Amino acid sequence: MTTLIIVLGALILLAGVVIIINPETVFGYLRSNLDKLELHVVAVIVRLIIGVLLITQASYSRYPLTIEVLGWLSIIAALTLAVIGREKFRSLMSWAMNTLKSYARFGGLFAAAFGVFLVYAFY
Prior knowledge:
mainly alpha
């Protein structure tokens, strides 16, 4: 299971690098799929999976308390996204993409750093 977390960390790192290099790649994809139910479902499910993995595997990491807290935060985020419904999810995503567009590369840097942290914590 820790291997799966390392793979997820590497994918988060890759997504962060893509955002740093060309934010429109990710933003364009999100914008074009914003009205699709699948985007909302994937956002919830991925956060749930990451949360459960982090909580159950925290004791195998270099930073068990930090990893467990991140896992719970991920589950809380998933539940929040599930409860707010599709329309508010779409509004939140639209707001975030429009308001935070100028900070996209910084967000990519943050995502890349988080991916590196996950890989380091479980490697």
